[in-house]
Amino acid sequence: MGSQSNGQPGQGLGNRALLDKVDKLRELGISHLVPLPQMVVVGDQSSGKSSVLESLTGFQFPRAATLCTRHATEIVCRREPTESVVVSIIPHNPSPEREKLVRGFRRSTDRIVSDDFPKIFEAASTIITPPITPSITLKSIWLKRIMQAAKVMGIKLSENDGDGGSAFSLDVLKVEISGPNADHLTVIDVPGMFETVTPGVTTESDIDLVKNMVKRYIQESRTIILAVVPCIVDIANQKILRLAAEADPQGKRTLGVLTKPDLCIENATKAVVCDLVNGKRRDLHLGYCVVKNLGADDVSGNMHRRNQQEQSLFGQAPWNTLPSDRVGVAALQTRIRHLLMDRTRAEFPFVKSEIMTSLKKSQKLLADMGASRSTTDQQRAYVGKVASNFVTLKNYGLDAYYTRHNFFDDYEMRLITRIRTINEAFSLVMHERGHAREFEGASTDGDGKGMDEPDEVLLAGDRSLLYGDKVNLKIPMFGDGDLGDIVSDSYWCAEPERGDMLQHIQELYLNSRGYEMGTFSSEMLSRTFKEQGSKWRPMTLAHVSNALLVVHQFIRRALEECCPDSTVRDELWGFLLYGQEGEGHEGLLGRYARAMDHVEFLLSVEFQERAITHDPRFDEKLSQLKLGGEKPASEGPDNGQPAQEPEKGPSSSLEDTTREIHNLLQSYYGIARSRFIDVVCQQAIDYFLLRAKDGPLEVLSDKVVLNMSAEQLDLIAGEDLAVKEERERLAKQVESLTQALKILRT
Ligand code: GDP
Ligand code: MG
């Protein structure tokens, strides 16, 4: 408060320190996050709000009777060794372009020349009271500045301004006053409320706009409401008192200020005012004060004169009978100071905990955004971090270190376990029903158990049907669209045909023999083998596709885990999936294709013309079959010699030849099947899908990121401006709130 205020040297240093802290918090600009104690002056138009403010702060505001304030003005007074005044604008909900313009407005001076202030605010009043006469007013540099401010705030300067804008603005004009004589006080002067429209100046919607603006300010629980009511109106029916009672039902923060007592003529009116000040009416818990400001006729704006006038008025009856602590501006100042102090002290613990909450929230938001990514280096570091986390997860998945990350709490992510499960099931199904026909004398027990042909519907969608009841896991269908060309159809393996295998072979033999006598061509084996293994191809392709889908889902989910930013993730996923032609990065699709190609390779090798094995078990099996097989054909002579080489054997009947082919096929098939299952699992799946240096799981690694070009990185990890600004805003917020906590702790 100004130099003319009745200073209160008795105020303890502790109090001052508390207010100092609040001031420092306010300087940090956190009041939009955590409301701080402040004061708002409200009332009807021309009730004397600005006059009261002026009296309180000692700085001069416009007092012209015609004046109506068209935007809120926040006046922040601070006691500081050096003088300065800063005028700026706090925009309300600005468009991006306007925000820049408004925030760019900032005028400051390092001197408080008190003669200047009437001019400054006179200038402001000139701006909002059309028409203006530029020739006179533009002389003042301050006027120019305020005019600029008004323009930036979008206030209609005159009727002919014609942009249809409101006569009021929700922007806040902020005036920061510091000096050795200023006292800690933040006061907000809001436009006065009014009931009737002035054609060409205000509209119906302006009435509500102002009312809502006032409501917004008084709703805030840390705001002290100075309800200004002139003595010359029907005080009890003042709308502002009703609004204040709604916003502050306990009346803890509403102080009534009666103005214009000098204009009371009738004794009855004076008596009403005296009753109010004396607390005879209990509508306001904190009661009323009465002040006398300069009247409309007094254009001097002289504060000294004002105080003299006030003193002389209150020296007269009936005012001199009132309690002195409720009469005059000095008493009001003291009361406000105490009130502010009380509120501040009461609210302080809440302010502190709210700052902590707000800090945590901002920190979390900031952390969720990740590190800044504007330069190539930052982008590389960002994607590099994603990659190294991915590599870690992938290795855990391959090594079954599932306890090291809660990612694996989801069983579907237990990569190597799932691969092993389906590999084993594949092996079992291959053994049970991978062959086209049952061999002669094959055991038939347990056939078809749990392997009933499924419904057509299920068959189409459920890829795990391949394994029958051997597994109960679902093969993920994720990425089907992308992988359509690579992944084979799902396959359900029917049971092998039953019936006379010997008969079948005999027919085959008879339909393809040449001139061989007592023997058969070596082609007979590969031909029957091809037929017996006719299901291998669809089964194997389906199985390796299933493994591929498991790997694919794992990669996707691991990426989601490592890259929480969905924008980056989507770009990165595209890069991983399709690769970058010409940049030497092969995508997942190419890597998967190699595994599937290898399946084709293994199949083609297995079913080529020559049947080859050097497995000693082949001979064992063959002789075993021969021995066993002779029993049913007991009519024939049994010389006890194994007949591995049919050509050299004794001349055989057709039946013997057929049986020989059968036994040969059965021996070879078993060997080939084991070999095939193993190489499929070992090469197509374990090597090509899981471990290969150029396999799918290597699609994202530190090395890949190192080789990314600047353009790629920018495409993947670059941020748009909005994100960048949001991060900066949050970072600043975190810094301010951290600073605020530090202030509170000292
Ligand atoms: P606001 O619209 O609520 O800000 O009201 P102002 O402070 O601008 O005052 C409106 C008019 O009332 C101005 O002409 C003031 O000079 C005048 N006024 C304010 N307070 C008093 C007072 O106590 N006595 C007299 N006579 N006039 C006053
Ligand atoms: Mg005013």
Automatic annotation (TrEMBL):
The UniProt record lists the keyword Nuclease: no
Pfam family, one: Dynamin_M
InterPro entries (UniProt xref): Dynamin (IPR022812), Dynamin_GTPase (IPR001401), Dynamin_N (IPR045063), Dynamin_stalk (IPR000375), G_DYNAMIN_dom (IPR030381), GED (IPR003130), GED_dom (IPR020850), P-loop_NTPase (IPR027417)
Annotated spans, Disordered: 628-656
Signal peptide range: none
Listed PROSITE patterns: G_DYNAMIN_2 (PS51718), GED (PS51388)
Record domain GED: where: 658-746
Gene3D superfamilies: Dynamin, middle domain, P-loop containing nucleotide triphosphate hydrolases
Name of this chain's protein: Interferon-induced GTP-binding protein Mx2
Domain of life: Eukaryota
Organism: Trichoderma ghanense
